[in-house]
C-alpha cells in the first residue's frame, strides 16, 4: 500500500523491504538526507551571493530569497549572519562601506545595515548625475586629454576625424559644398550666410599659435625650408618632456618657447576664416576634472574632494605591475653616505653586466602601501618600520643605506609624484617598492663599489586571486625557505627565487601557496612563501618566533599589538605542525595580503579545515587594521603618516 503511493525516485530507496516499519525508517532517513543537502546548498548560496553587475535592489531581493528558503526548511538565518554576509557580497565598489560596518566593536543589526546601505546609495546617486567626461583625443570616458597617453602617439587619429573629412566629400554635383575652418574639421557649415566675413588672409606664426603666448624666439618659421625651424631645442618640445623633476615638481621655465606645431607646412593659398556663427565667444572654461570622489559625512558636514585619476579600470586591478609616472633614484659609493636623490620618469635603468646585484645578488627590497582616504588625503602605514628593516638588512649585506628620514622623504615624494595612480577609497592601494642594490661593477666576490636606492610604485588590488576568500595551503617538506644562520630574517632578493619551484608545483595542484617547515627538524611551522602565519586556539593566538629564519613582518607586528589590545593571549614560539590538527583558525599576514584567512591546510595527504568568515579572529583583525590604514577609524596606535 505504501509503495503504491511513492514516486519512482523514492521507490528505489525502499525496494526489498518487507515491513511497513522498515519502509518508514528508510523514508525518514532518505528525506532527512535530502533536507541536509538542501540546507548545505542554500548556506553555500548565501555565502557566495554576490551583487556583481546587478542592481542593488536585485541583489537584496536575491539575498532575501535565499534567507527565506533557509527559513522554510527550519534553518532560519540569524540577524547577525545577515549583517555579516550582506555587505560581503556587495563587491569592491562597496569595500569602504563593508569595512566600516564590520570594523565596529558590535556588528550592527540587519536593519541598521540596510538603512546605512540605502543612505549610501542615495548619497552616491546624488553625486553622479552629471555625465562622465571623456578625452577628445581618443574619445574614451573617465579621463581628460591631458591624462590621455594617446597624446604622445603622433600616428594616432581619432575616429571622428575621418568621419568629419568624409562628410565634406560631395557625392552629388548639385549638393552644396561644406566649408571647414582652417584645419578645425569638426566645425563646418554649408551655408555661406553664416560667414560674417569671407576673405583671404595670410598666415603668420601668431595666427598658428592659438595661445598667443609671448615667445622670445619663434618656435617655428612660416618658411618650411628654414633649417633653424627644425633645430629647436628639445626642451621646448612638449613631445620630449624633461625626464627629471626635482622635489616632486617638473622643471619649468617661463621664458622658453612653447612649440605647439613644430612641423607646420607653408600656407601658399588663401584660407577661409569663420568668425562666430551666433554669439561672441565666451571665455575658455576652467580645466575639467576627471572624477569626483564619493562624498562622506563627518561630524554632520559633507567632505567633498576632487582628484584626477589615471585612466584605469579600478574595479579590475589585481596584484600586477602597472607602471606609473615617476620613480625615485639616489646613488652613493661604498665609502660614502646617501645624499641627494631625484625623481625621474619611470623607465629602465643602466646596469653593468658585472654589477654586484647581478653577479652576487647583493640587493634588498621593501614593500609598503599608500592609501587614499575618503576625504582625498593620502596615508602611509608605518614607513619608519620599513626604513629600519632596510637598514638592518643593509648591515647584513655590507651595503650603505639611506637614513630613516631620507627613506620616508623619498617615499613621500614618490607617492606625491604618482598621486593620480593611488586608487580611489575602497578600490585598492598604491604598492611602493623601495630597492637597495649594488650597481657598481665587481668581478671578485666583494661588496660592490657603488649602490643605488630606487623606489617605484604600482596600483594594486588583492594579492591572491581568491581575494578575501579562504586560502588553501599545502605544507612543503622537501624544499625549505631558509636555514639557521642564513638570510631568512632579512628582505634580501635572494630569499624569494628559491621558493618558486615549490610554489609553482603547489599552484599546479590547485593550492593557493606553500607553508614551509623548519629545515633542521622539519616539524615546526615557519612561514608561507611571502607572508607570516598565525594559529588560533580558543583565546590564544600563536605565531612562529623570528629567530633568523623568519622575516619580522610589519603587518605581523601590527596584528600582534591589535590582538593583545583585544584581550587575546599572543604567543611567539615554535609551533609544531601537529597543532594544526586541532587549531580553530589559521591566517596569514603581510603587506601584500594584509590578513588572509586559511580555509584548509593539506599535510602528507591529510586535509585540515578551519573556521573563517563571521566571528573569525582573522576577520575582526583584518577589519580593524584596514580601517586604520585607510583612515576610516582613528589611529590610536600612531601608525599612519599623512602625506601633505
UniProtKB/TrEMBL annotation:
UniProt feature, compositional bias: Pro residues: 278-289
One annotated GO biological process: amino acid biosynthetic process
Gene3D superfamilies: 3.30.470.10, D-amino Acid Aminotransferase, subunit A, domain 2
EC number(s) per entry: 2.6.1.42
Reaction equation(s) it catalyzes: L-leucine + 2-oxoglutarate = 4-methyl-2-oxopentanoate + L-glutamate; L-isoleucine + 2-oxoglutarate = (S)-3-methyl-2-oxopentanoate + L-glutamate; L-valine + 2-oxoglutarate = 3-methyl-2-oxobutanoate + L-glutamate
Pfam families, per database record: Aminotran_4, Retrotran_gag_2
Family annotation (InterPro entries): Aminotrans_IV, Aminotrans_IV_CS, Aminotransferase-like, B_amino_transII, BCAT-like_C, BCAT-like_N, BCAT_family
Reported cofactor(s): pyridoxal 5'-phosphate
Keyword Iron-sulfur on entry: no
Keywords noted in UniProt: Amino-acid biosynthesis, Aminotransferase, Branched-chain amino acid biosynthesis, Pyridoxal phosphate, Transferase
GO cellular component, one term: cytoplasm
GO molecular function, one term: branched-chain-amino-acid transaminase activity
Composition bias type Polar residues, residue spans: 216-239, 251-262
Region (Disordered) location: 214-292
Keyword Transcription: no
Family the UniProt entry places it in: Belongs to the class-IV pyridoxal-phosphate-dependent aminotransferase family.
Name of the protein described by the UniProt record: Branched-chain-amino-acid aminotransferase
Species of the source: Kingdonia uniflora
Amino acid at each position: 500500500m505504501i509503495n503504491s503511493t511513492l514516486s519512482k525516485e523514492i521507490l528505489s530507496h525502499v525496494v526489498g523491504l518487507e515491513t511497513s516499519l522498515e519502509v518508514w525508517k528508510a523514508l525518514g532517513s532518505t528525506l532527512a538526507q535530502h533536507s541536509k543537502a538542501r540546507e548545505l546548498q542554500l548556506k553555500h548560496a548565501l555565502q557566495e551571493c554576490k551583487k556583481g553587475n546587478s542592481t542593488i535592489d536585485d541583489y537584496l531581493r536575491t539575498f532575501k530569497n535565499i534567507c527565506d528558503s533557509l527559513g522554510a526548511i527550519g534553518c532560519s538565518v540569524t540577524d547577525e549572519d545577515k549583517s555579516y554576509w550582506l555587505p560581503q557580497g556587495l563587491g569592491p565598489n562597496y569595500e569602504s562601506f563593508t569595512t566600516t560596518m564590520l570594523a565596529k566593536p558590535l556588528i550592527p543589526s540587519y536593519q541598521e545595515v540596510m538603512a546605512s546601505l540605502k543612505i549610501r546609495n542615495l548619497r552616491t546617486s546624488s553625486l553622479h548625475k552629471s555625465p562622465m567626461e571623456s578625452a577628445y583625443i581618443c574619445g574614451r570616458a573617465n579621463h581628460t586629454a591631458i591624462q590621455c597617453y594617446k597624446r604622445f602617439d603622433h600616428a594616432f587619429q581619432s575616429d571622428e576625424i575621418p568621419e568629419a573629412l568624409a562628410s565634406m566629400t560631395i557625392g552629388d554635383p548639385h549638393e552644396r559644398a561644406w566649408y571647414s575652418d582652417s584645419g578645425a574639421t569638426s566645425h563646418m557649415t554649408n551655408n555661406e550666410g553664416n560667414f560674417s566675413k569671407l576673405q583671404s588672409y595670410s598666415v603668420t606664426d601668431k595666427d598658428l599659435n592659438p595661445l598667443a603666448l609671448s615667445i622670445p624666439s619663434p618656435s617655428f618659421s612660416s618658411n618650411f625650408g628654414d633649417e633653424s625651424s627644425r633645430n629647436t631645442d628639445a626642451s621646448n618640445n612638449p613631445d620630449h618632456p624633461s625626464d627629471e623633476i626635482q622635489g616632486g615638481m617638473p622643471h619649468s621655465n617661463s621664458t622658453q618657447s612653447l612649440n605647439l606645431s613644430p612641423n607646420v607646412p607653408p600656407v601658399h593659398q588663401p584660407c577661409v576664416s569663420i568668425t562666430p556663427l551666433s554669439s561672441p565667444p565666451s571665455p575658455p572654461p576652467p580645466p575639467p576634472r576627471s572624477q569626483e570622489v564619493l562624498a562622506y559625512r563627518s561630524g554632520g558636514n559633507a567632505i567633498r574632494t576632487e582628484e584626477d585619476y589615471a585612466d584605469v579600470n579600478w574595479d579590475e586591478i589585481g596584484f600586477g605591475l602597472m607602471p606609473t609616472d615617476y620613480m625615485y633614484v639616489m646613488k652613493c659609493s661604498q665609502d660614502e653616505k646617501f645624499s641627494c636623490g631625484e625623481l625621474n620618469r619611470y623607465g629602465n635603468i643602466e646596469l653593468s653586466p658585472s654589477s654586484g646585484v647581478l653577479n652576487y645578488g647583493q640587493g634588498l627590497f621593501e614593500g609598503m602601501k599608500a592609501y587614499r582616504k575618503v576625504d582625498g588625503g593620502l596615508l602611509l602605514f608605518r614607513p619608519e618600520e620599513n626604513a629600519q628593516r632596510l637598514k638592518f638588512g643593509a648591515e647584513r649585506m655590507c651595503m650603505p643605506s639611506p637614513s630613516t628620514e631620507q627613506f620616508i622623504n623619498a617615499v613621500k615624494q614618490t607617492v606625491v609624484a604618482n598621486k593620480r595612480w593611488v586608487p580611489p577609497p575602497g578600490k585598492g592601494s598604491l604598492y611602493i617598492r623601495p630597492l637597495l642594490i649594488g650597481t657598481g661593477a665587481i668581478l671578485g666576490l666583494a661588496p660592490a663599489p657603488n649602490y643605488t636606492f630606487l623606489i617605484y610604485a604600482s596600483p594594486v588590488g588583492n594579492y591572491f586571486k581568491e581575494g578575501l576568500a579562504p586560502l588553501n595551503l599545502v605544507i612543503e617538506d622537501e624544499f625549505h625557505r631558509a636555514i639557521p644562520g642564513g638570510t631568512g630574517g632579512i628582505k634580501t632578493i635572494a630569499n624569494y627565487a628559491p621558493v618558486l619551484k615549490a610554489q609553482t608545483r603547489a599552484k599546479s595542484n590547485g593550492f593557493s601557496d606553500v607553508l614551509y617547515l623548519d629545515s633542521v627538524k622539519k616539524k615546526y611551522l615557519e612561514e608561507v612563501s611571502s607572508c607570516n602565519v598565525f594559529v588560533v586556539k580558543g583565546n590564544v593566538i600563536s605565531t612562529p618566533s623570528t629567530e633568523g629564519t623568519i622575516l619580522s613582518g610589519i603587518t605581523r607586528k601590527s596584528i600582534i599589538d591589535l590582538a593583545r589590545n583585544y584581550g587575546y593571549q599572543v604567543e611567539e614560539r615554535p609551533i609544531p605542525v601537529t597543532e594544526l590538527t586541532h587549531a580553530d583558525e589559521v591566517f596569514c599576514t603581510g603587506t601584500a595580503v594584509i590578513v588572509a584567512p586559511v580555509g584548509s591546510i593539506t599535510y602528507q595527504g591529510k586535509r585540515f579545515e578551519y573556521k573563517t568568515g563571521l566571528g573569525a579572529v582573522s576577520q575582526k583583525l583584518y577589519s580593524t587594521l584596514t580601517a586604520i590604514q585607510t583612515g576610516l577609524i582613528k589611529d590610536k596606535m600612531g601608525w599612519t603618516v599623512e602625506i601633505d
